[in-house]
Design goal:
Keywords: Amino-acid biosynthesis, Cobalt, Diaminopimelate biosynthesis, Hydrolase, Lysine biosynthesis, Metal-binding, Zinc. By secondary structure, the protein is of the alpha+beta class. Helix content is about 30%, strand content about 25%. The protein has 2 domains: about 260 residues, Zn peptidases (Aminopeptidase); about 110 residues, Alpha-Beta Plaits (2-Layer Sandwich), CATH 3.30.70.360. The strands form 6 sheets. A 6-stranded mixed beta sheet has the order 1-2-6-3-7-18, sandwiched between helices. A 4-stranded antiparallel beta sheet has the order 12-14-10-15, with helices on one face. A 3-stranded antiparallel beta sheet has the order 4-5-19.
Length: about 375
Amino acid sequence: MSVAPSAVDLCRALVQCPSVTPQDGGSLSVLEAALKQAGFATHRVIFSEPGTPDIDNLYARIGSGAPFLVFAGHTDVVPVGEAAKWRFDPFAAEVAEGAVWGRGVADMKGAVAAFAAAACAFVAQHGTQKGSIGFLITGDEEGPAVNGTAKLLRWAYDRGQRFDHCILGEPTNPQALGDMIKIGRRGSLNGTLVAHGRQGHVGYPARANNPIPHLLRLLNGLIAAPLDQGTAHFEPSNLEIVSVDVGNPAWNVIPAEARARFNIRFNDSWTPETLQAELRAKLEAAGQGADYTLSFEPCNALAFLTEPDSFTDVVAGVVERKTGRKPVLSTSGGTSDARFIRAYCPVVEFGLVGATMHMVDERAAVADIEALTEIYAAILEAYFGY
């Protein structure tokens, strides 16, 4: 009988793989080896699409019956920024002051290691007589998210894989382990607004048409009134202007156009189509004859909710019992691959504390990684009736 890996050791081995999107850096091989040793059947699948990098993904399963609980996550990480500003080499996975330090520890190699260690230990103790356990691991969550989880899910579905529930190991906790479980996510829509004018000399403004005042008026029309008041499980939708650009190096030239970019995190009051229509109506009311164009990026991030049910109760109950904290069921934060998983089965998210994710000196407490492993193990026992 194989010995289950230590979550902390496995986490450190994963962090030592420089898997900045789209590079794998050997991380999937580290995880695959641990799962194979525990008896999981594994598959490495590379997906491609023009204009995007090829991405390596890992699918694993043990057992053949239902229910089928799958763990999902990613091993790719964001760039380190200025490595010289880190206390330790960002890919050394140093252990200091009771924490593992390195890029991707919190988001989310610590959770990947924790649920892999928990699943391996569970299989060694209980086998798979009562169902199946699987893994959906991508290297494209921090990147375009085109050749990762969305395609891996379709690949598995086309081969007859049917998931009953999923736990995604994103760092959901704001301050302490047990703070929060994500049961949904807001949608995300990106837009570009361009106000058109006529270039001319600043000393002869009547011969020109300055687009900047038009743009300011249009932007004010977008943000003057809230989009909504929120819903039962979601905060109000939020529009943030992220850039205003003219690109004019001269002091004595009125520019020909001015542009702004914005992002909206929207709740389940909206679809991308109804939201776009609302924004166009707001601009029409604020435009006062302004010449402008509005365009949107393709949207693959829709608002969704996993309605609380017995599965949610199992996860929340274990978290509360193990941490002493009653977790908030939340839909806050950014997007995640749960937006793809929800089309195949109910999904909740629970992982480590995210306070340092994407930051210099990203880290996670050793005690938290070990406690998260115990939580995942207890969820497996409760889910399969042990």
